[in-house]
Design goal:
85% of the residues lie in helices and 0% in strands. The protein has 68 residues and is mainly α.
């Protein structure tokens, strides 16, 4: 499975979601002007990255015959 390029792309996409989530939560924790400026933007980026990751996971399952 680790030699499959699509699996690696899915893993990178999931990792990107986690990193963006941690940055967003971190900006909430800082508070003040930083939180006001970046928190909402980071959570929007997370939603977009998560949608891409889910689409890639579904594509991976569909292409690899996991649909039945």
């Amino acid at each position: 499975m680790f030699d499959d390029p699509l699996f690696l792309i899915v893993a990178v996409a999931c990792g990107a979601v986690v990193i963006i989530l941690m940055l967003g939560i971190g900006s909430f924790g800082i508070g003040g002007e930083t939180s006001r400026k970046y928190s909402n933007k980071m959570m929007r980026w997370r939603v977009a990255a998560q949608a891409i990751a889910i689409a890639l996971i579904l594509l991976f399952v569909w292409l690899r015959g996991g649909n039945g």
